[in-house]
Each structure stands twice: as C-alpha cells, then as structure tokens.
Amino acid sequence: MYIFNVTDPITLVLLLAATILLIFLGKEIKKPQASVIPLIFFLVLVLIHSVELAVIPEIGYEYYYSIILRCITVDLVMIFITFFGYLWVDDIACKFYKKKSIDNSLDWFWKQV
C-alpha cells in the first residue's frame, strides 16, 4: 500500500515552501486564485488520506494507522495556513482593485492581535 507521506521532513519542507511561494505569488499578482491551488491540493490530500484510513489492510494496521493519522494532522494544519493565506491575498486584491469585499474576512483577526 502506497501512502503519500507528508510527515517526512523533506516532503514537509518542500510542501511548505511551495505553499508559501504560491501565496506570495498571489500577493504579487494580486490574484487570490494562485493561493487557492495549495488549498485545493491539501483538501484532496486529506480526502485521499481519509480513504486510505478506511481501507487499511489488516497486515501492518498499527504502522499504517499512525502514519495516516499524522498525515491527516499535517494536512489539516496546512489547510488552516493556506486558508488564512487566501483570505490575506483576497483582502489585498480587493483593496488594490477597489472592490468591495463581501465581508472583511480578516478584520476580526487583526482586531484581536
């Protein structure tokens, strides 16, 4: 059974670097669609890991179970990071194009900081 292990340190660093680069690309070109790419990628990954968790073979159950749970945890953290990155880039794009945002998504966050 092949598992895309995102908890491997090299893979994790590469995924984090690609995510940060896509978020900053979206910031530079003022298009929030660039920061949606990693968000969709991590949503698909959490779906794939959930399916893998449901069909774990009996042999090596404990080994695969722990790896997949760590992968799902990393996926959810990356979804959290990319979602806030998307909201940040969307806010920048709305201000640049002088569009009215439907809701000021990050205002509640910045008021708390």
Q: Tell me the overall shape.
A: elongated
Largest sheet, if any?
Answer: none
Low-confidence stretches: none
Distance between the termini: 45 Å
Strand share of the residues?
under 5%
Helix residue percentage: over 70%
Whole-number mean pLDDT: 88
Order of helices and strands: HHHH
What's the total number of strands? 0
Estimated radius of gyration: 17 Å
Number of helices: 4
Structural class: mainly alpha
Describe this structure in words.
By secondary structure, the protein is mostly helical. It has four helices and no strands.
Layout of strands and helices, then pairs:
Blueprint: H1 9-29, H2 33-54, H3 61-96, H4 107-112
Helix pairs in contact: 1-2, 1-3, 2-3
Summed up, what is this model?
The protein contains four helices and no strands.
Descriptive key words:
113 residues, mainly alpha
